[in-house]
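Budget justification note: compute hours in this period were largely spent on complex prediction jobs such as the one shown. Inputs:
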Amino acid sequence: MRGILGLLLLFALLPFLPLGAWGAFLLDVGLFILLFTALALSWDLVARTGQLSLAHGAFFGLGAYGAGLMVPHLGTLPALLLGSLLAGAGALLLGSVTLRLHGLYFAIASLAFSEVLRTMALKLPFTGGPIGLPVPPPFGGGWPLASYYLAFAVLLLAVALSLWAERSSFRLAQAATRQSEAVARVLGVRVVRVKLLSLLLGSLVAGLAGGVYAMKALFLNPYEAFSLGRAVEALVIPIFGGLYSTLGPLLGGVVLVGLEQALRLWIQEGYLVVYGALLILAILFLPRGLLGLLGGRRG
Amino acid sequence: MRLVVEALETGYGKAQVLFGVDLRVAEGERVALLGANGAGKTTLLRTLSGLLRPWRGRVRLGEVDLRGLSPARRARLGLGHVPEGRQLFPLMSVEENLRLGAAFLAPGREKEGFERVYGLFPRLAERRRQLAGTLSGGEQQMLAIGRALMGFPRILLVDEPSLGLSPRLAEEVLLALRAVAEEGVGVLLVEQNVALSLEVAERAYVMEHGRIVLEGPSQALRQDPRVREAYLSL
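Corresponding output:
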């Protein structure tokens, strides 16, 4: 808990730290850490029910496009909210059809879902198609730190949801569903409902993250917004940091996204090779992620 | 409240496993369901708890026809289940495993459930913070029973509780089930350990190849030459 609060405090104060010439760059890195960590937490929320989601890239994209299309008409906050609700609607649609499926089958269905949405973003008449969609910055660009603090707010929400799920009896329902669905059911746990609620909460957060991303990137295209790479990043971060926890994805996000940005700066072209090698080492030697180093238990 | 099973038939895919099973268990009653491996005992339990759909026949709990009801709904109506092989959550503490059994109760009832389970199994109270995976086999079985009791079932289905336990522990667990029944819970005990089950249960059914072939008071079954020969090797 102290670790979580410490990290959050660091992010809250980051814009005011004396970072000199590096300030602007570090603030950008910080923003991406905030967004992708929130996305990772929202993925972990679903993973806690034993479902491997490859649709988080799609929820992110739904939020991004939803917010991007609405922000010129409605303003920043309503647009973010609508983008998030759009992602939530997508999750309910996907979940109500597929959540009776187990692990691998759900993963494949969620992958298909994400491909369908990308195709729709390419073909629909109002999305800008393959050319892309320009998005105005938050609050008309009047406040330079707006997107950073919006990202911070998304992470706060993700952490709050994750902590709630970890500390309420919902955690038991999630863990039981993950470990043995049949036993959970005969004990009276409504497993489909537990899975659907987890997916809905996760998608709302992922959609918000996507919306803030759109306002930061100022430009969306379907390949970028619905990329499978983002869905993979959403699951790599919790695995690297420590699954089924709040601190794990938080640590994983700070280290991995930070590392990715740093490597891109130092090594440039071949940075993904080093990044991949580091991931392999982590999986080989840290089977429980960074949290395993700290000696936490999971269950 | 009674659990009444009438002419139940079911199976997996095209393979029929149960061929018209009739059975009843009343509250407070101890009933054993005996039979060799593959007789269909576990299939029957899975059908009763709603994990498997019946092809034909009826299952009623009190006045309620359970047809089409989900396992979670049945648990809420008062049908408890202690699954074969205990199926605890090994990385959760004893207390967390128990809380799971009460997942659907109002928080106030949970406390009552803890008192009841810890009263029945004082050893679980001593170990409430320990991870379930670190308990001994007998304690794990008690925890599995306790977990099911947390939901205040009226009828409790218990699948092979003596599996993998030493004879002494098996006896201890089965005697605990007698205490459970004395609190008014109907116990349907599914066992391969016929001698022990007939001591604990008041009535028993013997199942072979998906059919009930014998039923009666335990006393009578113990004297029945077919039971003596096939199951008690006397």
